[in-house]
Amino acid sequence: MEGEGFEAWYRAEHPRVLGIVAALTGRRDLAVDATDEAFVRAWARWSRVSKMDAPGAWTVKVALNVVRRAQRRATQTPTAGAETIVPATDPELWALVRALPPQQRSAVVLRHIGGFSHAEIATAIGVREGTVGSTLNAAHKKLRDLLAATEEEAGISG
Amino acid sequence: VDELDRAGAAVLASPVGEPTPIDRLRPRVRRRVQRRRAIVAVGVVLALGLPTVAIAAAARTDRGAVDVHTIDTARQPPTTATTAPTHALRTLPRGARVDPNDVFSMSFADGQHGFAYYGSLGSPLGLAATNDGGATWRAIGAAPKQASDLEFTSVDDGWAFRPDRLVTHDGGRTWTATHPGGDVDALDVIGSSVWSVVGCSFRATPCVDHLERSDDGGRTWRSTRLTGLPAGAAQLDRVDGQRAFVWSAFGPAGLARAIVRTSDAGTSWDRRKNPCGRTLAGLSAVNGFDLWASCSESGAATTGKELFRSPDGGRTWVLTARVGMSPAPDIGKLPIKGYGADLIAINDQVAILTSGRGTVSVSTDAGRDWSPAIDFQEFLGSITQLRGSDTVWVGSARTCLAMCGVWRATDGVHFRLIARGTPY
């Protein structure tokens, strides 16, 4: 039967994909819908997706494309049900991550929430593998600067 | 890097939500496979130069007449009924009837006259209006750009906002931009007094929202800082000309999920206690002191929730109902289905809670017991209350599996389907 092995993979991979998309969008409803749609597409072509080197990264890529399309279509986010979220732990750190440029932010979330390899990150965000390392380095440096500025400011105001 | 690894692991350790049950994904997969096969069929036959046959083949495939039971045939035998009745979304000419399942962001100037977007929730195709209390809706023109919400105070005067802010004085025919100082998060109008919370970007440090206020219907504006409030997704609930609450569902640590209150028309703001250990999902003020607040855990299908009441404008809170917060015992009867979304307090006894992906529930005993008023089964639609009245409208906004359309309760409790929509 087509779809063999999908359910087990879906259950294993879902938290990671949803966590990444939620962290990048900051919107639970949007993240849930986009993640569902990405897994629907993965299931619909499971015979091909299951043979990919990084089906999880492909699914994240699809989900992020769904998000981008939804955001392009919408003049703004839906009202009811549009619940904005940030991770419950380390919200200050994630607020800084959200302040990074889009490509750096995606790379950081995929690396540190998703645990993706450079190759998987390259698949998910559509850049060359060699670019991922430099993007992550730039993101880490920017975060260090932002953290230092935040701590300095806290010291001044405290 | 180590800190990010640790923080990332912590994020995964507390999932955002449960996986959608696989049985709910299955019909969508089947439709997708059908659609792909239809496209392939059209492509193949067109390549053979047989357009008529191609269209017929596509039509058959799209109706499910072609065998597409490639996924789990044992549990879901192929059937032509897998394609739900549906209708296409398109921009309508002025005066054309709008399907009640397509309206969202409703706003009523009085009990009869209301306005709404039509289209797919969050993606308006145009503006619609009703003059019979929501029973029928007709297209009246284009939707204002860059504005997801509406607030009308008369049949002529209204606002469209989030993230931009526009005003109309001719019933939505034309809109004028009012150039806010940032993205508008919330707007609340009482007569000619307009307040809007204007957010800032995370890139600004420190990031402080502003209240932009106009006392002359939007001709001139004054801006004051909303100190003590974390940036992002702020919501505004005005009690009267002097008193209002602004609250935010998230923000940096220490300022997370804050509530601030003014009793001097926005000149000064006091920080109030946030009762929620988790997301502050909804806040509604009956008056300047009597507050209702709903809290929700992360999750989508079923989530723990709490309902708090404050008798003193948010200084102290009393836990009134709780569900699914194990090991803490449940209190009263709160719906566990869905996650907390909007909360509308009608008076000190009656309130309405809409759960995203859940139901519309009503309490008539001050928030302890809640019973479903409408079960859309997959609700993410919109709810609106006519200011100063007990009349509330709920629109399914194409996020229903059943009972689709516009519902109204004139007493805040008993909802009636006044405009049946076509299921999506």
Summarize the structure in words.
The complex is a heterodimer of chains A (158) and B (424). With 158 residues, chain A is mainly alpha-helical. Chain A is 73% helix and 0% strand. Chain A has helices spanning 6-25, 28-44, 46-49, 55-73, 91-98, 102-112, 118-125, 129-157. Chain A starts with 5 loop residues before the first helix and ends with a helix. Mean pLDDT of chain A is 79; it is low at 75-83. By secondary structure, chain B is mainly beta. In chain B, the strands form 7 sheets. A 5-stranded antiparallel beta sheet of chain B has the order 1-5-4-3-2, with no helix packed on it. A 4-stranded antiparallel beta sheet of chain B has the order 6-7-8-9, with no helix packed on it. In chain B, strands 10-11-12-13 form a 4-stranded antiparallel beta sheet, with no helix packed on it. Chain B is globular and about 55 Å long. The two termini of chain B are 46 Å apart. At the A-B interface, helix 1, helix 2, helix 5, helix 6 and helix 8 of A face helix 1, helix 2, strand 6 and strand 22 of B.
Distinctive features:
heterodimer, A: 158 residues, mainly alpha, 73% helix, B: 424 residues, five-stranded antiparallel beta sheet, four-stranded antiparallel beta sheet, 29 strands, globular
